[in-house]
Design brief:
It is built from six helices and eight strands, in the order E-H-E-H-H-E-H-H-E-H-E-E-E-E. The protein has 174 residues and is an alpha/beta fold. The chain folds into two domains: 125 residues, Rossmann fold, CATH 3.40.50.1010; 40 residues. Strand 1, helix 1 and strand 2 form a beta-alpha-beta unit. 34% of the residues are buried. The structure holds zinc ion. Zinc ion (ZN) binds next to loops.
């Protein structure tokens, strides 16, 4: 099985992308990092040499990612770029790559784990637990099923969220 390491923006900010290994990323990430002027030339050269491959998941991969992210309550916290990285990892896995996502985004890591994708963080400690969120009112304790509600309809207090409970534990991927 060939390795496919997939980088989000943090992989470019931390310099990992310039370590001359083979990486994958998506168009969305390139757009996000397009303002780093200094490394623009270096980036172009990596792309030209094929050391960074830009690819996208297919429709079916996006569908699966969105479905799982909605179920876990992470969907609202994922950007289009985050979704594209997860979809790409699924696609590469389908193509028999041993795909690993490098990302510091907590929601992205959480959904990756739910999709049985390997994930590691470039700087911070890897997450070991899969979390499902619960949205609740701090004042009257009403629990909300939807994640995009911001204010309690009973007492008007702002809502908070907390983990619903541990689902499964997985060894840290590093
Ligand atoms: Zn309330």
């Amino acid at each position: 099985m060939k390795d496919a390491v997939i980088l989000d923006s943090s992989g470019f900010y931390s310099g990992l992308a310039f370590s001359m290994k083979n990486f994958y990323t998506t168009k969305g990430v390139l757009k996000e990092i397009s303002h780093i002027k200094l490394s623009k030339l270096a980036l172009e050269s990596l792309l030209e040499q094929g050391l960074i491959k830009v690819d996208e998941g297919k429709k079916e991969h996006f569908k699966k990612v969105i479905e799982v992210a909605k179920r876990s309550g992470d969907f609202k916290r994922l950007s289009k770029t985050d979704l594209s990285l997860l979809a790409l990892a699924l696609k590469l896995k389908d193509e028999n790559f041993d795909s690993l996502i490098v990302s510091d985004d907590y929601s992205l890591c959480n959904v990756a784990k739910l999709l049985n994708l390997k994930v590691t963080t470039s700087v911070t400690r890897g997450i070991t637990k899969v979390i499902r969120w619960i949205v609740y009112c701090k004042s009257c304790k009403k629990v909300f099923g939807e994640y995009d509600v911001k204010v309690c309809d009973v007492c008007g207090s702002p809502l908070a969220r907390k983990p619903r409970g541990k689902l499964k534990k997985k060894a840290k991927v590093s």
